[in-house]
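The passage that follows is intended for readers who have already worked through the single-chain material. We present the inputs for a multi-component assembly, then the predicted structure in tokenized form, and finally a short commentary. You are encouraged to pause after the input and sketch how you expect the pieces to fit together before reading on.
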Amino acid sequence: MATVTLQDIRKSYGPTEVIHGVSIDIADGEFVVLVGPSGCGKSTLLRMVAGLESVTSGTLRIGERVVNDLEPAERDIAMVFQNYALYPHMSVRNNLAYGLKNRGFARAEIDRRVAEAAAMLEIAPYLDRKPGQLSGGQRQRVAMGRALVREPAAFLFDEPLSNLDAKLRIQMRVEIRRLQRRVGTTSLYVTHDQIEALTLADRLVVLNGGVVEQIGTPEEVFDRPATIFVAGFIGTPPMNMVPVDWLRGKGELDAVPAAADVVGIRPDDLDLEAPPGSHLTLPATLELLEPAGAESHLYVRLDGLDQPATVRTQGRPALADGARLALHVRPEALHPFVKATGRRA
Amino acid sequence: MAEPTMVGAGRSGQAAAHLILVLGAVVIAFPIWYVFVASTHSLQTILRPPLPMLPGSEGIANYSEALGGGINRIGGVSVGRLLWNTAFVATAIAVGKILISITSAYAIVFFRFPLRMVFFWLIFITLMLPVEVRILPTYKVMVDLGLIDTYAGLILPLIASATATLLFRQFFMTIPNELLEAARVDGAGPWRFFKDILLPLSATNIAALFVILFIYGWTQYLWPLLVTNSNSMNTIVIALRKMISFADADTPWHLVMVTCVLAILPPILVVVLMQRWFVKGLVETEK
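Having made your guess, compare it with the prediction:
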């Protein structure tokens, strides 16, 4: 177990820089999730920590050691790949044992660790099967088992759940979290799925275009997004953006700093009924009502604005398309941003 | 699975199809049968037409004479010796070709080094230079190295194989990159990755190639003809040619027929024994 420290890490392919100086401190035993849209550099960053990509500049530490120029095998990390990358010709047992054999562990110690990991992941009945005979979920467990037996300083996960169907993904998500809590190994996890990120992480790192947009706990990132990008990326449906000028005269705006020129409002914070206390009231027209089980999504057009907005509400309001609405929002639910810098005001 | 419906799938259609198949099989098998029959008769019977259609009684005598005794027309060398020569050369060519091509394909696919693509194209270009084209310089090299009438002289010039290298290259390129990365994280160096992961995954390809290359080595004619003078270093195909004289009466036809039968048996055996692997290697997609 160890800390993992990234200090002004940069990565260039030829003249093109793709990671523009990323610094992250991961505490011992912490579960950090790197999240961002595809092409944001999150996988590249993870692969640099693993040693599968070279570090162009900056300092990468695992524990006290600077590992910039070490081979992956020398970094004391274990990685879980998106497509599992199990050795297809080896039994599950040998898949788990291979890394230990290469490191010269004694037979008895290998057997002990494999048995322990197999019991923990409930794959003991399949130890003598080949990966081709296993289901997707079972293969995923074997891939995690291969990381687990190594008892490394850090786990690296590269979108490990994206090849599973939705139901299995939720189940494995819970299991990964439980497992990590149990063994307490420092973990770095890459995903583009914000639900996965919010549910798994002790801390989130939101990346965009090779730059860190925000680092914080899931609550901090969700409740106080640092940039317009984070506001739009975290949370479904995404946050609505409304110009401050349009809000003037619709209620109290004291909470919005003078520098802010755009305000974000989460779809959940737009109410169809007026809440008690001070609030803003926004006139709108319902364009489409989309029932989604226990909740409903309302696609509305705010009077005088071009872009549509989304409202999420519990139950199924009895409204026809084209209905006139008054949407209410409390002033503390407004997220003020400066459009020019993209940052929170 | 339902039988695919085809034109003439009725009873009469099937009968016709079978008739044609049986005819084809007979036409192909007949010469081989004829050779086998001839190998079991005495020379006198063979030379006095018509030749019987059924095996005769001289089989055991003919085969033991050829295998043990030695044949005068080729300097008293036994067919046993010829079989050994050919089997050794064909196996060495097949194994050597596989060894060279799998390692060069490994280098080209999995390593980054200067002039990598130049080397790849150099190998590729040799496809245009079969043995026949480079036969004079190759022969000169063999003479200079003193390799005439040696196994090395029979084997070495035929070992380099661009085709096998390209086949292995294509196969290696289908191996997911993550597998290589997982092995790196698991502490496998280049040699371990080759031995523990690449070789086992290539097993079916290697088997298929072995069958093809063994037969290629077994049926070599031009090069063994040039590079061997001594009768005891002949391969079976060359010896067969040497046994036959222009004068019919000089030719020990019964022994020629025995040699023919013995010459086709090992390749057939290799194909039959390795057929399961061979087919698997050609159709396999599981990775």
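Commentary: The radius of gyration of chain A is 24 Å. The longest strand of chain A covers residues 280-292. How closely did your sketch match?
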